[in-house]
């Protein structure tokens, strides 16, 4: 248990929040399939990403972890070996789902598992298309939950997959499996999810075409480049300090080198519409992604809005912290079309609403989202993170404005995405 109370302090200064989790995972995965040298700088050394790294070491990839950079001497996509042990992906949904795509194209037996939370997360969303492509995938409860067993094949079948969900993990699993067939492979989503896999595959030399909501693999499916990837700061981590500054009197923070890929910046659109005082500047490009510095100032006059539809995938991981922001807005904020939140690291609709109420907020669950009524005085109280890093960070930030302390049962989970969170908080927490 940890107790926080930062009321009366402000957030000020500059931070380079940790590197992007999605891009760090993909850099190691694609680097391990590459025939060539991949250098990854600013890799996110969080538990989730280190679990991906460990899995590829167990799969025989030649990885030299020099701490400040990771060098992968890739021997091509056919070079992976049957792992001697079960691959334990900890808390990481992205790892297990994307690696399943890659293992579908490997002619060997592997078993993938994770922590008590990951073992409850649905895997049929990837298993269904990957089985259609020819992989054998088994799991608990009729193949739905980890541990998963995968027996892949050197040559898979093609697929034109109409994904029922806007999910980058599903899209990526199919595209990665698609590297192991010459037949047509495409994925069509109902709304655009983050496109880091497509961008990075291209950077490695793979032909990828994008046509509206459809992504198609072209003729060349070999990764054959010497490549250097510098991972930008994760907007999903920066978001905690962005919202912290917006709700805390006298605050002004600058978050540096944050990824501003349009599939990730839904929170900035929300800021615009709610009236948060923010600015995006120093826009640059880095390893195929746009990055920028983001300044956010205390914003006492924000208003509630409706959030839904195709904006949801662009801010899916920021909904808990946006809900905290909504407690300080004039009027109601209604978030819909976000039923995916029910199967994240926790049921985030439930854990966000319950904990907002626990600290004196006025919030209500919807089947596919939540309603937050604004201008509430948050009192503080007991919070249960349910092992979910983003819930633990959201309610740590809440303690900047609660009358009384916030007690959080488990904050260890924060290290899955943001091991230096409390150090960074200390850096910008000022009198
Ligand atoms: C991720 C995709 C999203 C996101 C997760 C990371 C990725 O999940 O919530 O934190 O790196 O592909 P879904 O694809 O399940 O929406």
UniProtKB/TrEMBL annotation:
3-phosphoshikimate binds at residues 21-22, 26, 167, 169, 317, 344. Residues 8-425 form the Enolpyruvate transferase domain. It is found in: Cytoplasm. Phosphoenolpyruvate binds at residues 21, 93, 121, 169, 348, 390. It comes from Balnearium lithotrophicum. One of its GO terms (biological process) is aromatic amino acid family biosynthetic process. The keyword Cytoplasm applies. GO terms for molecular function: 3-phosphoshikimate 1-carboxyvinyltransferase activity. CDD domains: EPSP_synthase. This is 3-phosphoshikimate 1-carboxyvinyltransferase.
């Amino acid at each position: 248990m940890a107790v926080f109370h930062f009321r009366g302090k402000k957030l000020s200064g500059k931070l380079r929040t940790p590197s992007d989790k999605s891009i760090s995972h993909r850099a190691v995965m694609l680097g391990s399939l590459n025939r060539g040298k991949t250098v990854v700088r600013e890799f996110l050394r969080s538990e989730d990403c280190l679990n991906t790294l460990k899995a590829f070491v167990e799969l025989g990839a030649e990885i030299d972890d020099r701490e400040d950079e990771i060098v992968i001497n890739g021997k091509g996509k056919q070079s992976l070996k049957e792992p001697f042990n079960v691959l334990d992906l900890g808390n990481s949904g992205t790892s297990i789902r994307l690696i399943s795509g890659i293992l579908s194209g490997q002619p060997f037996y592997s078993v993938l598992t994770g922590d008590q939370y990951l073992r409850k997360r649905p895997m049929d969303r990837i298993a269904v298309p990957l089985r259609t492509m020819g992989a054998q995938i088994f799991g608990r409860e009729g193949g739905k939950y980890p541990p998963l067993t995968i027996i892949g094949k050197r040559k898979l079948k093609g697929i034109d997959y109409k994904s029922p969900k806007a999910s980058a993990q599903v899209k990526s699993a199919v595209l990665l499996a698609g590297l192991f067939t010459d037949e047509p492979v495409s994925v069509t989503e109902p709304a655009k999810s983050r496109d880091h896999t497509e961008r990075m595959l291209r950077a490695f030399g793979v032909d990828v075409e994008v046509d509206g909501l459809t992504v198609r693999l072209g003729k060349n499916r070999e990764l054959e480049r010497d490549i250097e990837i510098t991972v930008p700061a994760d907007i999903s981590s920066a978001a905690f300090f962005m919202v912290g500054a917006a709700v805390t009197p006298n605050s002004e923070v600058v978050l540096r080198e944050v990824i501003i890929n349009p599939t990730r910046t839904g929170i900035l659109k929300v800021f615009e519409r709610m009236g948060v005082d923010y600015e995006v500047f120093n826009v640059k490009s880095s390893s195929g992604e746009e990055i920028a510095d983001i300044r956010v100032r205390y914003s006492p006059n924000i208003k509630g809005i409706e959030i839904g539809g195709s904006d949801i995938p662009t801010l899916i991981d920021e909904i808990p912290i946006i809900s905290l922001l909504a407690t300080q807005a004039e009027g109601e904020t209604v978030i819909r079309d976000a039923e995916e939140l029910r199967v994240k690291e926790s049921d985030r609709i439930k854990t966000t609403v319950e904990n907002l109420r626990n600290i004196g907020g006025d919030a209500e669950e919807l089947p596919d989202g939540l309603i937050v009524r604004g201008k509430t005085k948050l009192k503080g109280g007991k919070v249960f993170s349910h092992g979910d890093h983003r819930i633990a960070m959201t309610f740590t930030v809440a303690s900047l404005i609660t009358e009384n302390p916030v007690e959080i049962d488990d904050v260890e989970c924060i290290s899955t995405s943001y091991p230096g969170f409390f150090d960074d908080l200390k850096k910008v927490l000022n009198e």
